[in-house]
Amino acid sequence: MFLEGLDGLDRAIVELLIKNARMSYSEIGKRVGVSRVAVKMRIQALEQRGIIEEYTTIINPQKISGAVSCYFEIETAPDSLAQVTKLLQGNDTITQIYRVTGKNKLHVHAVAASAGDMERLMAELIDPLPGVISCSCNIILTRIKDIKGLRL
Hints:
Elements: H1 8-19, H2 25-32, H3 36-48, E1 68-76, H4 81-89, E2 94-99, E3 106-112, H5 115-126, E4 132-139
Antiparallel strand pairs: 1-3, 1-4, 2-3
Helix pairs in contact: 2-3
């Protein structure tokens, strides 16, 4: 995939970091054919430009006993969208919020420790949201493919 402003060396560095964000500057340098210092400078520049946003550990909730993962499709009245988004952002069980096209204005992902916790989230946060026209919930049974971020 072509990304404007990202040369071949930056792409090679980012591809290695996608596979293993803990890889050392020295190891990356050996693999791409430049010095450790050059790799560090390139990575810092990618971070400053906002191309690399963060380094994180990704937990698979399906591997944790009892965890429940759901997607909500929420349609709101236009004048309620900002308030609904703000309320959702303030809850730690909500892991992702996307504004989308089509009938449903928001695509929301939540991960709760148990079915009971997910039910409480629905009763205490989702159900009373202001201006909601419709809301559907889909429980994720199996994660088949889940790619984080952009692949080059």
